[in-house]
Amino acid sequence: MANTLEPYRLTVHDAHDLLRGGELTSVELTESMLSRIRDLDDRLHSYIRLTEDLAIEQARAADGRLRSGRDVRPLTGIPVAVKDVFCVEGTVTTAGSKILSGFRAPYESTVTARLREAGAVFMGKANMDEFAMGSSTENSRFGPTANPWDPSRTPGGSSGGSSAAVAADLCLASVGTDTGGSIRLPAAFCGIVGLKPTYGRVSRYGIIAYASSLDQAGPMTKDVADAALLLQAVAGRDPADSTSADVPVPEYAAALTGDVSGMRLGVPREYFGEGLDPEVAEAVRESLALLEDMGAEVVEVSLPHTDYALAAYYLLAPAEASSNLARYDGMRYGLREQDTGELAEVYKATRSEGFGPEVKRRIMLGTFALSAGYYEAYYRKAQQVRTLIREDFSRAFERCDLVLGPTAPTAAFELGEKIHDPLRMYLSDVHTIPVNLAGLPGVSIPCGFSSGGLPIGLQMIGGPFREEDLLRAAHAFESNTDHHLRRPGD
Amino acid sequence: MEYETVIGLEVHAQLATHTKIFCGCRADFGAPTNTQTCPVCLGMPGALPVLNRRVVDFALRVVLATGGRVAPVSRFARKNYFYPDLPKGYQISQYELPLAEGGFLEFPFEDKIRRIRITRIHLEEDAGKLTHGETPGDRDFSFVDFNRTGVPLIEIVSEPDFRSPGEAAEYLRRLRQLVRYLGVCDGNMERGSLRCDANVSVRPAGSDGMGTKTEIKNLNSFRNVQRALEHEAGRQIEVLEHGGRIVQETRLWDPAQSVTLPMRSKEEAHDYRYFPEPDLMPLEVDERWLERVRDSLPELPLPRRSRLMEQYALSEYDAEQLTASRELADYFEEVARLCPDAKKAANWILSEMLREVKAGNEEDFTGGPVAPDHLAAMLSMIEEGTISGKIAKTVFEEMYRTGRPPEDIVRERGLTQVSDREAIEAAARRVLEAHPKQAEKYRAGKEKLFGFFVGQVMKETGGRANPGMVNEVLRELLNS
Three-class SS string for B353-383? Predict the structure, then answer.
């Protein structure tokens, strides 16, 4: 078990106990983490950029709070990694893109503001697929991140830097964003906990937008209790985000009862179809059996429109992205090319150079889907499919409290394996995308390992604003298993 | 062949809220460049819009004043295009579900009441302001002022109900009067608070079909609206007369050359790729909200005009002038409340008062330095014979210059009317003695000279003599 000699191995809640008890200071913890990052991260590349000065400053301030005993919260003094998609005032924020080279955010995202207020320590900006578009972190303009379990493999994406940093003990916890699976997929691939809250549960203010109607920020942690702590810190209505919900935030720790008896777990037959790796299917089925042994009731449900989710997503998300990314025009910040040319030349040169191939592909897709003459056939049709998918879930939740299935069809794949085959890459998100389309909360937790020793993720999907249900079941499962305790290199 | 012109107008009005439509920045005109900005209106990565509900209040005033149907649920949409004055690369507007549809504006035109139907009124944000190469030596540069990005606008789209440029220009004047009455827009076309684009086509007189239309932009004054429309209609007729056909296109009015010119096709070849704005919730307006706005509406120009005619027995012309602006009408009614002769009050306001304000700009009247109770007091002094009508003009000039009450001015300057019969008689005798020849001629029958004597007596008394009494005294002396 982790201790003060290897404090980077701690969970957030264990570190909190030590910090609070005076057995460890935040500066010690932060410095041990920085030194570990220096040792390991050249190889992993989980961070795009460290914010050492900020981290030490925040750690000192946290130690002050801890010493005085005033305003000590569960995250006070806790080193976290922040996905590079969050604006952190005064620090370079690029969303993994060249087009935002050198862009220093002039304001703070609500999520990081709430983490700061809670006393968290920002280690640095975690690597990601450019503008959160990708499933492998290979689309980062700063180079890919390696999976700590097997550096020849992807950590998943788009929050791959965040998941690798947590799995490799290069931070105690992290925040990512999830538009089609970008928290849950990398959590599954790296053997950690990744929770995507209900759309509207966490403010999007200051998060560089990919697809506004789908984006949602959430915690990526070593265990479920930590996920509850981080979610508690960042959740809740924000007047600066009109789509953030005015729904009371419950006490998430209270959901960690260890008890699933009486919960009805729905298993959609559509999530066990073609393309699912047998080892993954096996791990998920064993997990279901365990939950049943623990007192949960397993029922079969159907989500009949699952097959259409991917297609609908790849119209809606790119459509919104094509508009969201229009602001990167070289006029006000970030990259500008062909400074002396005609206006159209400046736009063309800046955007050609600034965006990577996957981002360009999605801008083209989205522009097409919204074009006059195609809008009805693509964008509107996709919205209709979205409604059907939402209704699928509503019907399922009449019969169960949670829907369970695999997070991803396979364990982590090889770096380079799918990067030139977008459609195969897109299929990695086939189980996570419907959850975003329906705006529901979902969590991925470790539920086993492949024969090659790679983590496998179990996905739990809840009703709107039922994060407590997710946390309760995930925590109970975790309490009866030890998958989450295994670390790369153990 | 005889042709008929068909015109529809799209009017943009900047709403005069203190802050912008989607952020808390001030929306003042004329602030130093780029001082009223924030991450939201600068389109910074990750920034999100939040609707200013006051903007909706203002827009609803216009909708209710024109009898439009307010949508219980309307939606914002993104209009996508690239331009340096548009920091997000899209304008937040409304498209499929506008705030309101239907309604009309009625106004008198050529002795009839014209009713122009309104198609829709929707909310949107303004773009920034671009200036090109203004600084000497900076010819290759363009400058953007983002103070204007996010200033709230409503777009008021009319049906193609106009049959002449004059009618269209009059509608615009009436719309301006209305938004100013409602206190939602200052209506200043030069500053761009009110902007107008027009759709113009011509067709054979009496035909029901619609000709191919062109869209005319850059109509930034009432004069330009009329001139541009006249020119464009004439141009289209000429094209048709020469066997040509009208190309559907956007044309720019060039006021210097007095012509409309086609915009480069590149500039108009836009596919705006509208789609619902995912960063904003649908806008819901319930009956309570509408009721609150309805209660805040002032009396509108046309009904007020009718009421003034009836209540104060004013001519249509006077009532029209007095209702040019809400401030002027309020002023009049306040004076009329304090002074028994409303007709006289109207005359004074429309002649003396507005002459001082600025010839022909009655709608810019904002009260001026003469308090309504001062003007009423002065009118009463005339009525009571304390001062003469002629002296009153002098008094008024000073009231306007200094803002002081008329009683003080009259007292200090000794302007009280002379109604002392003996004093007037003495003055009249002096005049007759000084002009014996004229007196003789008058008595010999040259009665026209009576006016001369009146003038001389007035001169002798410093203009303060009671004119009625002067007449009476002179008649007695001359006829005796």
Answer: HHHHHCCCCHHHCCCCCCCHHHHHHHHHHHH
